[in-house]
Automatic annotation (TrEMBL):
One of its GO terms (molecular function) is DNA binding. The lineage of its organism: Bacteria, Pseudomonadati, Pseudomonadota, Alphaproteobacteria, Rhodobacterales. It holds the Pfam family GntR. SUPFAM superfamilies: Chorismate lyase-like (SSF64288), Winged helix' DNA-binding domain (SSF46785). Keywords: DNA-binding, Transcription, Transcription regulation. This is GntR family transcriptional regulator. It comes from the Bacteria. GO terms for biological process: negative regulation of DNA-templated transcription. Residues 6-74 form the HTH gntR-type domain.
Length: 245
């Protein structure tokens, strides 16, 4: 049977996406011009523009008047159901950080909401997320040991665009999810959390609990975030997307 050849724009799309995933273009940077890309791939600018627009619709790129195409994220909501805190901070021209506080594999520290979701051994990852060196979020992420049996401190860079927990879970361990359920609440910072976030005890802060589910509806991780400041919503396309760690 004769195999059909993919259209040129799809070939270009796949090649640019592979470059993005390989880290050739950093978040917030501009891609080469359409003219340069057309010479690189030996195709017309119309073909290049169609490939780039596909990446815009998927959420990887944004088209800016007078600036061309800019890398927006490596974990678009369309592919992860959550937007990346790391990518949002980078796009703001600021510096995200992720101080690792511990990887407990397996853990005995399991909160009540987590026990309701999982009846199996779990890994607990605790990190302090920073913006320009200042603490902004204290995160606790529980993942089944069977999905990340060898998870260790070396899996968690503290700088750069690969510190996103979304990318770490997908790239390092092949964890896949299609939907998420998030709960927002206002809580009082207990002494431990107050110390982590460098605020006074009993300061009102935001609590964000997120459960991610695989295509079969089974939970694959639970994220508990305590944070200073507001949560930003992206209402593009009619669906609210929130930032995650």
């Amino acid at each position: 049977m004769k195999t059909s050849t993919p259209p040129k724009y799809q070939v270009v799309h796949d090649a640019i996406l592979s470059r993005l995933m390989a880290g050739h273009y950093s978040i917030g940077t501009r891609l080469p011009t359409e003219e340069l890309l057309s010479k690189t791939f030996d195709v017309s600018r119309v073909t290049i523009r169609k490939a780039l627009e596909m990446l815009v619709r998927a959420g990887y790129l944004t088209a800016r008047q007078g600036s061309g195409y800019v890398v927006a994220t490596l974990s678009p909501p369309s592919s992860t159901c959550m937007a990346s805190f790391t990518d949002q901070v980078l796009n703001e021209g600021r510096i995200p950080g992720a101080k690792l506080l511990g990887v407990d594999n397996p853990t005995t520290e399991i909160s009540a909401p987590v026990r309701e979701l999982f009846d199996e051994p779990l890994v607990l990852v605790q990190r302090l997320r920073t913006v320009d060196g200042l603490p902004r979020m204290f995160t606790q992420t529980w993942i089944p040991v069977r999905l990340a049996p060898n998870m260790a401190a070396s899996d968690f860079p503290e700088t750069g665009q690969e510190q996103s927990i979304l990318r770490i879970l997908r790239r390092n361990f092949g964890v896949e999810w299609t939907t998420a359920c998030e709960t927002l609440d206002s809580v009082i910072a207990n002494p431990e959390i107050a110390t982590r976030l460098d605020v006074a005890p009993n300061t009102p802060i935001l609590s964000q609990a997120c459960t991610a589910f695989d295509p079969s509806g089974q939970p694959v991780f639970f994220d508990q975030v305590y944070r200073q400041g507001p949560i930003n919503f992206d209402l593009s396309g009619g669906a609210a997307q929130q930032t995650s760690a």
